[in-house]
Amino acid sequence: MMLTLLISGPKQPGNDIDVYLEPLIDDLKSLWVGIRGVYDAHNGEYFTLRAALMWTINDFPAYGNLSGCVVKGYKACPICGDDTPSHRLKNGHKICYIGHRKWLPINHPYRRQRAAFNGKPEYGIPPEPLTEEEVLHMVENGDRVCWKKKSIFFDLEYWKYLPVRHALDVMHIEKNVCDSIIGTLLEIPGKNKDGIAARLDLLNMGVKTDLQPEYGERRTRLPPGPWNLSRAEKREVCNSFYGMKVPEGYSSNIKNLVSLQDSRLLGLKSHDCHTLMQQLLPVEIRSVLEKPARYATTRLCFFFNAICAKTVDVSKLDKLEEDVVVTLCLLEKYFPPSFFDIMVHLVVHLVREVRLCGPVYFRWMYPFERYMKVLKGYVQNRTRPEGCIAERYIAEEAVEFCTQHLSDVSTVGVPSSQKMGVSKPLSGCIVSVVDQDLLNQAHLYVLENTEEVLPYIEQHMIHIRTAYPKFRKRTKWLQDKHNSTFIQWLRFKVYVVE
């Protein structure tokens, strides 16, 4: 089910959105009781239709509006609740969410390290996620430290029994984390998590004191940290992105997102950040970033790649959860505290939701964002947007039905699809005679790219070096000899010897 609300007015309703959700709640109540007289065309009989809402899919600000919980401040995590690991940065004037060592095993060496983290050892335990009964008890009894209201969804009698009522959107989490990493590495204004305030906060915490600002007569110098790139390295990264070529439909044209003049990446969309975090970013930073920070960033990219897979091995989720906790601790060691906003903290809870809700691609916002764009294109009369969407939807549904009904009819006056000509020749045939040398090259290529033949290739190279000891150091001669004799040697080896 996808809900599209067209709310009039210059501003969104925010936490007062419940009044617009009342018609939806009434429909969901009716579906839970059951709608009789629904016809099953396949079996030719009537049945009672029942349905239940499992969870909502929305970005994090809408998460707070729909659930009624706080999504900023000291208790911004809706899963940790009152035990959210938060710390206020005095110079940055913001809340950071560090302290992921709580999720480590009790005997992990990171728990005893002080200077690498916040200057203190960690003996705490991870907070238990709030149960359904605890949440309902808190909002009903006025204990609203981290809750602003009782959500209207609790009017559904089954809502209080659901372990996950509002899903964390991996699309927006991945985008915000990617923006923070790219903005910090390339020092993009507005997205850079480093600065004088961040260095002073490190000094106040008593960690990484060698990175404190150095005040001069004309300017203040910031010593390079593990997360900083030199000007030449920034230029190298941007040039690599600028010259990158990807398959059609893989992503947007990355060349248009690169500003070589000031070494920045601008205008990154959600899917651009997705491709960067999944495959491109680990390749781009492998030779330009200090090894500890590069290792931590690459581990985070591998985590998103694993969690966004279409198939998830349930037996590996525990190991994946342990790995992401270590990854976040590594990021705490090599990145400033200001880097850890609430979106970075929510990464620690993603494996839990995969365990409860299944693969990510069933509940992220990519398909809904695309469909929102389709609905937006339906609106031609801005004074009547609802009518435009309804009429266009009905018309499109009728056209699709006619298209399926007349699928075998050839079109008149409309160019045929390009896919209709797939596998058809573009010109007359040309007869080509393949000689024995070319055939041997093709045969050798197939053999050398077959996994089962690789042990025989190694045996043949050892055989050549043994038979011709004078040429064992001449690599080119050995390779030529291997290419000319391997096919016959393999045929004799397989059919005669074995």
Helix content: 40-55%
Class based on secondary structure composition and strand pairing: mainly alpha
Give a quick account of the main beta sheet: strands, pairing sense, barrel closure. 2 strands, antiparallel
Q: Rg from C-alpha positions?
A: 30 Å
Quantity of strands, as a count? 10
Estimated share of beta-strand residues: 5-15%
The chain-level mean pLDDT equals: 88
How do the strands of the widest beta sheet line up side by side? Answer: 1-2
Number of helices: 16
> Could you name the ranges where pLDDT drops below 50 across 5 or more consecutive residues?
none
State the domain count.
4
Would you write up a description of this structure?
The N and C termini lie far apart (62 Å). The strands form 5 sheets. The chain has a two-stranded antiparallel sheet with strand order 1-2. It has a two-stranded parallel sheet with strand order 3-6. The protein has a two-stranded antiparallel ribbon with strand order 4-5. Strand 9 and strand 10 (264-265) form a beta hairpin. The mean pLDDT is 88. It has helices at 18-33, 60-67, 132-140, 170-185, 196-205, 231-242, 270-284, 291-307, 317-334, 342-345, 350-357, 366-378, 385-405, 436-448, 454-467, 475-497; strands spanning 35-40, 45-49, 56-57, 87-89, 94-96, 166-167, 214-215, 220-221, 258-259, 264-265. It folds into 4 domains: 14-84 and 127-167, no CATH class; 170-362, no CATH class; 365-404, no CATH class; 437-497, no CATH class. It has 498 residues and is mostly helical. Helix 9 (317-334) runs antiparallel to helix 11 (350-357).
